[in-house]
């Protein structure tokens, strides 16, 4: 339990220098966000979802919106296209 007070006092003494623990957390958040943003933007562009692409470019949610799109919403769009193509094949 002695680590937490040391962390707080260290951050208060040097809030935004390269040696600060906050800078490590900031860099970790930056890498996390950029990785998810890149993957989700790539998938949105490949699927032709221009509204999702624009929203993810503008809104920064530390990867939360990107993760939701990547695993939930992009799969819904694929299943909707698949259902439509199956309906067309049946009606032929």
Low-confidence stretches: none
Overall structural class, as computed from helix and strand content, comes to mainly alpha
Q: Given the C-alpha coordinates, what overall shape results? A: elongated
Estimated helix fraction: over 70%
Distance between the termini: 70 Å
Count of spatially separate domains? 1
Please tally the helical runs, counting DSSP H or I stretches of 4 or more residues.
Answer: 4
User: What's the alpha carbon Rg, rounded to whole Å?
Assistant: 21 Å
Task: Give the key terms.
about 90 residues; 4 helices; elongated
Description:
The mean pLDDT is 79. The protein has one domain. Helix 2 packs antiparallel against helix 3 and helix 2 packs parallel to helix 4. By secondary structure, it is mainly α.
Write the topology of this structure.
Layout: H1 3-13, H2 21-47, H3 50-58, H4 64-91
Helix pairs in contact: 2-3, 2-4
Summarize the structure.
The protein has helices at residues 3-13, 21-47, 50-58, 64-91. It is built from 4 helices and no strands.
């Amino acid at each position: 339990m002695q680590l937490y007070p040391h962390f707080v006092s260290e951050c208060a003494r040097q809030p935004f220098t390269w040696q600060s623990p906050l800078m490590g957390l900031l860099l970790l958040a930056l890498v996390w966000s950029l990785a998810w943003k890149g993957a989700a933007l790539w998938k949105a562009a490949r699927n032709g979802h221009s509204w999702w692409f624009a929203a993810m470019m503008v809104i920064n949610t530390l990867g939360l919106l990107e993760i939701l799109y990547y695993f939930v919403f992009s799969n819904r769009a694929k299943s909707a296209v698949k259902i439509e193509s199956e309906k067309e094949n049946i009606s032929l």
